[in-house]
Amino acid sequence: MPSSQAPRHIHLIGICGTAMASLAGMLQAQGHRITGSDAGAYPPMSDQLAAMNIPLLQPFDEANLEPRPDLVVVGNAISRGNPELEYVLDQRIPFCSMAAMIHDEFLQQRESLVVSGTHGKTTTTSMLTWIYEVASRRDPRFAPSFLVGGVAENFGTSYRVNPDTRPFILEGDEYDTAFFDKGPKFLHYFPDALILTHVEFDHADIYADLAQVKTAFKRLVNLLPRRGRIVAFDRSDNVTECVARAFCPVERYGFEASSHWQITNFQPGARSRWTLLRQGQHFADLELPMAGEHNALNATAAAALAAGQGVDAESITEALRTFRSVKRRLEVRSEAHGITVIDDFAHHPTAIRETLRALRSAYPGRRLIAVVEPRSATLRRNVFEQDLIESLTAANEVVLAAVFKQESIPAEERLEPQRVVAALNQRGTPAQLLPDADTISTTLAPTLQQGDVVAILSNGGFGGIYTKLPAAIAATRSAESTT
């Protein structure tokens, strides 16, 4: 299923976003010449772009658009005032959004399998993709194309385009599409089958309230054809409301006895095990090398959708047993001197709570320190302040960084870290506010003890803390050994 377009020079503004970098690779695989620009680059996507030999131009500048590209893809983080965007508009260079490009270039005449929800999208998409990959060993028709919002470790990449098969698995993001298209990205993907994990208030910068979030998901559900299928989480009134008027079959999954796909006999730990029932009948005994009920739910959703599309239980079982997670999802960044440093992308209070619960299960009896950067548009706002406090009480200690680019959030809407720290201390969870990665690393490292688990929670680069903290730990231990 090759591209219908002749090779073009396509420039991506904001290329270091996870999906944008993936799109760059997909377009290059289609034979197009790709360039891109961004204000700042950090792993893992900067590494992926370098490995693909795609030029990354920094910073944004009109000169990056010379020679004139045939088409410009404008990332959703790009707004009016960006010098490249202004040049594109002045010169009338053709442009489009990332989501529209994905639909036009890759999804037509394919089977679109979309994973949506306010939590768990990236992990669930990666699980579903790996299930299809394992199934393709028995039946080549299942060989997937995919687009994941992170680096899927089973593949070592966030994307693949398979020209000869129909399944295309992609993460459906509810965030807006571009400066000229304020609807959610996932409305461009026209699913043939859909997973809906959770629906909560999120992205307070673009949604006024939960009602608006639910409206977005209802619009997505309304795109499913009658022949389609929805796999939806069962322990959520919001999800129930969003799928209530679907024109296609809806299969619920979870721990409820009434679930179409029911998790039973769940055994927590660093490796999760459970039995999956399909309409009350044994389907498979599953094992996942990840901790946490939320990951068992993610795996069950992926298993349910795959089974409904014809994938056999043996392939599903083997795939989940050998699943290797996603970069920045409970990723161990350092294990030295008896101290484990974990990197996780959690950037919503619910995700933080589930991440800390999973770490409690994976590392029982060990002291858990949460290091949190309020970086996402959600976490930087005070509307989530009480929920954040509640979620962080699951840690033994908390270190909170300053609000990222706090000047971009109106003062009356901005999270007040001092209030969070004071509330945690009042509840008996020791907490402190430290301004940046350097201060956190040098302050925290001398206090860490053998057996400690440090969970770094941010959806960005966090000032390089993922390398700075392990280096500070090593320096502290070295200094101790010489005294």
TrEMBL record:
Its EC number is 6.3.2.45. Residues 115-306 form the Mur ligase central domain. GO terms for molecular function: UDP-N-acetylmuramate-L-alanyl-gamma-D-glutamyl-meso-2,6-diaminoheptanedioate ligase activity. Residues 9-104 form the Mur ligase N-terminal catalytic domain. Keywords: ATP-binding, Cell cycle, Cell division, Cell shape, Cell wall biogenesis/degradation, Ligase, Nucleotide-binding, Peptidoglycan synthesis. It is an enzyme of class 6 (ligase). The keyword Flavoprotein does not apply. NCBIfam families: mpl (TIGR01081). This is UDP-N-acetylmuramate:L-alanyl-gamma-D-glutamyl-meso-diaminopimelate ligase. It comes from Terriglobus aquaticus.
